[in-house]
Structure formats: C-alpha cells, structure tokens
Amino acid sequence: FTSEQEIDQRIADIENMLHTTSMPLKEEKKLVAEIQTLKKNRGKVGKLNAMEANLSSSGDASTKATLLANRENINEQFSILLAEKKELLAKRADLTNQRAEQRGPIQKYIEQKDELNKQIQEKIKERNTLRDEYKQKENEYYAYQRELRAARAKKAAEEREARQKEYELKQKQKEVEKLDEQPHVAEITLIEQTMKFCRSLVTSKDEEKEEEKKEIAHNNKDGEEVLIKKEDREEEYYFAPLKGKKSKSKKKSSGSSKSIKHNAETFRLFDQLKLDAPLSTEE
Description:
- The chain is mainly alpha-helical.
- 69% of the residues lie in helices and 0% in strands.
- It has six helices and no strands.
- α1 (4-20) packs antiparallel against α2 (25-58).
- The longest helix has 74 residues, at 107-180.
- The chain starts with a helix and ends in an 11-residue tail after the last helix.
C-alpha cells in the first residue's frame, strides 16, 4: 500500500466481507488479524510518504539515489533472510517428521502415559474435592462442638447460680434460726452448774431416800412356811425394854456452818461469774 487511503479502503472491504459473507472461523481470524496489522502500519505509510515528499522537494539527486540504493540493498538482504527462513522451516518440518517416525514404536506408550496423566489429574481433582468436603465437614463439627461447649458452660453457670442462691437462702435461714436461739446459753449453763454445786453443799446428808419395796412371790409347798425378816416381825415383850445407852459423841446441829474445800475447777467457775468463792456453807 502506497497511501493511507488504500489501507482504509482495504480495511473497509474486509469489514464488509466479515459482515456479509459466511466463512470458516479460521479465515475469519486471519481477516481480523489483517485488519489489526493494517491499522498498526497505517501511520508508518504516512510517515514514509512524507519522507519521500521531503526528499523530492530537496532536489538533491545524489542523496535520493543513495537512499534508493540503500533501500534496494535492504530489500535484497530481506529477500535473502526470508529465503533462509523458508529453508530453516523446511528443515524443522523434516526433523519433526523424523522424530515422529522415531517415536512410532513408542507412540502407544506415550499415548498410555498421556492417558495416565489425564487419569491422575482427574484423581487429583477428586482428591481436592474430597478434601474440601472433609474440611467443610470438619469446620461444621468444630462449630457443633463449640455450640455444645457453650451450652454446657451456660448450664454449669445456671447450676452454679442456683447453688449460690440455695446457699444464700440456707445462710439466711441459719441467721433467722440464730435469732430464735438463746444468746447467753453458755452463761446460763455456767450459772446452773454453779447453783447445782452450791445446792450439793447445803443439802443435808441425813435425808432419807425412799426405797421401793418389791413383793416377792413365794412358791411354798404344803406344810412349809417362810420366815419374815427380823425387822419386819412384830416384837412381843414380856417386860419393858430398858433405855438404850447414850452415845458419847454429840451430834452437831444441822444448821451449823461447815467449811468448803475448793479446787481449781470450782475457783474457775466462780471466777467466770466474777464472784468470790464461798468459804463456808453459811456464805
């Protein structure tokens, strides 16, 4: 193409062909690639034409001839290189064919290898799918375990709170019961013990204790009699008994005062009551 108008016209023709003609996909891709190349080189054509116009306007024939000669040399080198490229492509095709012939006997093994690789990739995909499913199930299990632990912790907290309330209620009940108890039980007990001790000192030793008499059942045979005790017999005197001998010892009157012997325990009792321990029964 020698001008930008020609490039634009070619682009328009290709676009019209794409819109109005049905063609294989491969050819359509080629035409699209050609449009992209033309659009890319459109600016270069304009620059080349501008350079040629400048060159022609300069009027320097020798410079123009030199540039034309350089262009011809470049075109010749490009043709040589293009020919070498075609030779290299042909050699590559020959080498490819030779390699294919050499691989002929092992081609089936290569195909088997490819098939095995394909199966391996499928198994890898299955493994990854199973691993992802396992990971998901594991996460669900851990979430369930966290829910269970949270529920147990909540239940334990509620039970602790209930036990604490029950304990507080019992403590309050004990405090209420303490209000009903006598606060001076120890002092009262101490006083009662001391009073009992004092009564034991002033009580007369001559008090008689009543003894319960039990009737004894006797199983006597015919003609047998049981003698009663001497003190229970009715005494018959043939003469009046004489007066008994008087005791030499004189009995002291029951109202006389006696001294009290104390020990450490009795002194401790009176000391706790903040009283002086009596030294006699009169006190």
